[in-house]
Amino acid sequence: MGRYHFVKKHIDKGELVSPLPAMPTVNNYYLVCPVGHEKRPKIQTFVRWLDNQII
């Protein structure tokens, strides 16, 4: 599963197949990191940047 925009070129090249029809999503995103790493300055900076890109 993946966002069509990100996998389209791979589907077009035959590197990936789409076994199911496209389905709408509710646009949820999750950022995952090891426990405790969310407090690291570089992670916090990235999260702020990402949040600003999405909003």
Structural notes for this entry:
The mean pLDDT is 87. It contains two helices and no strands. The chain is mostly helical and 55 residues long. The radius of gyration is 16 Å and the shape is elongated. The chain has one domain (2-20, 29-52). The chain has helices at 4-12, 41-54. It starts with a helix and ends with a helix.
What characteristics describe this protein?
elongated, single chain, 42% helix, 0% strand, 55 residues, 2 helices, mainly alpha
Brief account:
The chain is an all-alpha fold. It contains 2 helices and no strands.
- What letter string, H or E per element, gives the SSE order? HH
Please work out how many helical segments DSSP would assign.
2
What's the Cα radius of gyration?
A: 16 Å
Shape: elongated
Could you give the count of β-strands?
0
Protein name: Transcriptional regulator
Organism: Vibrio maritimus
